[in-house]
Design brief:
mainly alpha
Length: 278
């Protein structure tokens, strides 16, 4: 029996009833609302997009955003992978409580997270770090720190979900054959979750690229120094330079579309990939 006939047997024919019609109408309304919002960026940014890309300020903001988002995302993944493993594969005490604490920042305003970092690095301990060369407040390093605090819980949740959805029988078999936890993690768990981990990296990176609230509170927005892409939009709007703001927004939209498209490709159900191969 081929895959198509199996899918037809598993999935019953869906009837169109009144409730289905209502949900379809609501889904169409939501799609229309989001499309209008995205379309306004395209309409406003497309005419001046190429010209504003030549601006040194926009290019500086892009380079700074790309660099800080990449560094912070790498650090987030390095921290999130072992944390997610500990929460899903070990007998760590108080896992439930620790999981709640880790995900607490997901429901907090980013301005509040930036304020917490500002308090930490403005304290005597923070001033000692500054004297040692670890300057965070009003510096590009602070952008990386803000990205990490904002995106680390998000990355942990995505990786934890990927780990929890895997079949643990292969790991159990490997352990019975004498493989260590480290070897099982490297040779079985990571390859199984490869697509999900790449997708997590892209989504975290995209979120870091667009982070604004925590960064604004911790490092401010100084032209050609701590000016990221969202900061460039904010400065352009406040100074009445709407064309640059819309062009920068258009650039961020294109980056988001690309990362989201790749993420969807990586997370397609296996049967859809098999159907395309055949």
């Amino acid at each position: 029996m081929d895959m198509k006939s199996q899918n037809n047997k598993i999935s019953p024919k869906k009837k169109i009833d009144s409730f289905s019609i209502i949900t379809i109408c609501i889904a169409m309304l939501v799609t229309c609302f989001i499309s209008i919002a995205v379309g306004s960026i395209i309409v406003g940014g497309a005419p001046c997009f190429i010209d504003n890309l030549k601006s040194e300020e926009v290019r500086f903001a892009f380079r700074l955003s790309f660099f800080t988002a990449s560094i912070s995302t790498i650090l987030v993944m390095l921290l999130a992978l072992p944390t997610a493993y500990a929460l899903t594969r070990t007998a760590m005490p108080f896992k439930g409580l620790l999981g709640i604490i880790i995900e607490l920042t997901l429901s907090l305003p980013y301005l509040l997270l930036g304020l917490s970092l500002l308090i930490i690095f403005s304290s005597p301990a923070g001033k000692v770090l500054k004297e040692m060369g670890f300057k965070v407040v009003f510096s590009p390093l602070g952008i990386v720190m803000a990205h990490i605090l904002v995106n680390l819980p998000y990355g942990i949740r995505l990786i934890r979900t990927a780990f929890e959805s895997t079949d643990r029988r292969l790991e159990y078999i490997a352990s019975t054959l004498g493989a260590s936890s480290w070897r099982t993690f490297l040779t079985i768990l990571l390859p199984i979750c490869k697509n999900s981990l790449i997708s997590t990296f892209l989504l975290v990176w995209s979120r870091a690229l667009g982070e604004f609230g925590a960064t604004l509170m911790l490092v401010g927005i100084t032209r050609m120094k701590t000016e990221t892409l969202p900061g460039s939009i904010y400065l352009s709007i406040t100074t009445g330079n709407n064309s640059t703001a819309m062009a920068t927004a258009m650039l961020m939209l294109l980056i988001s579309v690309c990362t989201l498209f790749i993420s969807h490709l990586l997370n397609r159900p296996a049967y859809k990939q098999e159907r395309q191969v055949h």
